[in-house]
Design a protein that fits this description.
The protein has about 170 residues and is mainly alpha-helical. It has one domain. The radius of gyration is 16 Å and the shape is globular.
């Protein structure tokens, strides 16, 4: 059991950036992101012993993170959203970089307006995952990934235009 725990903690250390990014895309408030991070870690720990393909840990982390986030949103309709991405504690360079970069903040705010599946697809697309990888993680066909990316790009373009004009 101790070696399993050590192995899991090493994986968590290597892939925590994924969890932070997914939480940032789905939750605007710091408290909601922190709660979601903890729930994702719990779900990863629960499912880790059953993980068959240890070569696809990144994809597994994305899938569990996205599914946990979507489930949490569905369960907790009372989650309150803020207009802007608030400052975060210095837990992750990725999150820090996003909150300090105005263009990235605009992109994240535009992504908030997408539905849950499109948020996930765009996050993975921005992470430069292939259509095949995205399809496997999300559980849709490769052609559906392409259609959703094109549709989401149009929506994001309009959202970014609206956010820029709203300043």
């Amino acid at each position: 059991m101790e070696s399993l725990k050590k192995e899991f903690l090493e994986i968590l250390s290597n892939y925590q950036g994924i969890i932070y990014k997914v939480s940032l895309v789905y939750f605007k408030s710091k408290t909601d992101r922190e709660d979601n991070f903890q729930e994702i870690v719990y779900q990863l720990w629960k499912s880790y012993p059953k993980l068959k393909n240890k070569n696809s840990i990144g994809s597994w982390t994305y899938a569990v993170s996205i599914n946990t986030s979507i489930s949490r949103i569905k369960k907790e309709k009372k989650i309150e959203y803020q207009e802007n991405v608030p400052e975060l504690p210095d837990k992750s360079n990725i999150i820090d970089e996003i909150t300090k970069n105005e263009s990235l903040q605009l992109l994240v705010n535009a992504i908030y307006n997408l539905d849950e599946i499109d948020k996930s697809i765009m996050l993975l697309y921005l992470e430069e995952k292939s259509y095949d990888e995205i399809a496997e993680i999300i559980g849709v066909s490769k052609s559906n990934v392409g259609v959703r990316i094109n549709r989401a790009k149009k929506i994001l373009k309009q959202n970014l235009k609206n956010l820029n004009h709203g300043k």
